[in-house]
Every structure is written in structure tokens, then in C-alpha cells.
Amino acid sequence: MRRLCLAAILAAGTACAAGTSGGSATGSGGRGDVLTQAQLVATGGTNGYDAVARLRPRWLMARSPSTLQAGGNPVLVYVDGQRMGGVEQLRAFPVESISQIVFVSASDATTRYGTGHASGVIEVTTKRSSGR
Q1: 13, 29, 50, 107 from 99: Cα distances, Å
Q2: What one-character DSSP code corresponds to residue 109?
Q3: pTM across the whole model
Q4: Pairing between strand 98-104 and 76-79?
Q5: CA geometry: angle at 77 spanning 65 and 87, to 5°?
Q6: What is each CA distance from 23 to 26, 88, 90, 91, in whole angstroms?
Q7: More exposed terminus of the chain, fewer Cβ within 10 Å: N or C?
């Protein structure tokens, strides 16, 4: 009986962990951190900034490590793996030229790009780099 209870607890814990895990940033199975080209075009926005502002406005907001700090840390934008600057850079890319946009959390961005990404990163993959 103890083994059966233990097995049930382990199975439930595994199912819960699988359901809440972040997964990879490259998949688009309905996850909130990936915007596909079809989703971007469907917004009717003319550029990446407009589309993100309509679909995921929180991605554009700077985060502050404490409520005492004014302004917070800006979200940085990388396009095809190259750092471009702040979120205003998204205005330079028509939605038709974007393959996907991915939001990367601060901890994952630090792992990928080093320090200085306290608010996370918006990664843009253009059609040119994805071969589409």
C-alpha cells in the first residue's frame, strides 16, 4: 500500500512539474512567450512593436528590482542574435519580415547573453535568418 501511495505521489508531482515547466523558447505550442509570424500579422500592426504591444504589452515594460528604483531596467531587443537596443528598435521591423518573437526571462537572458538583462530580452528572428 505504501508503494502504491508513493508511486501516486511521484506521478502527480511529475505531471504538475511537466505542466508548469517553461519548456524551450523555440517552440510555439500555444505558449505565452512565443509569438509566431501568423499571430503578428493577425494583429494588423505595421511593425514588431505594434504587434507586441497588442499581444503581450507586459513584454515592453521595464522591471525594477525594487519599488524604490525609478525607471527600472529596460527590456533589451536582440535581432537574429545581435543586440539592437531597447524595445523601440522593434519599430524598425515590419511584421511581414519577422518569423517569430520570443520573450526570454531575465535569468535565461543572463545565461545566454551575460549580465545586464534584468528585465529580460525580446528575441526577434527575421525571415531572412530563418530561411523562410
Answers
A1: 36, 15, 15, 24
A2: H
A3: 0.71
A4: unpaired
A5: 75
A6: 9, 28, 25, 28
A7: N
Arithmetic mean of pLDDT over the chain: 79
Cβ density class 92-118: b for 16+ within 10 Å, e for less: ebbbeebbbbbbbebebbbeebeeebb
CA angle (74, 56, 83) in 5-degree steps: 40
Cα-Cα-Cα-Cα dihedral of 33, 112, 78, 34, to 10°?
-10
Cell of 20: 508548469
pLDDT tens per residue, range 27-67: 434 467 999 999 999 999 999 999 999 999 999 998 765 54
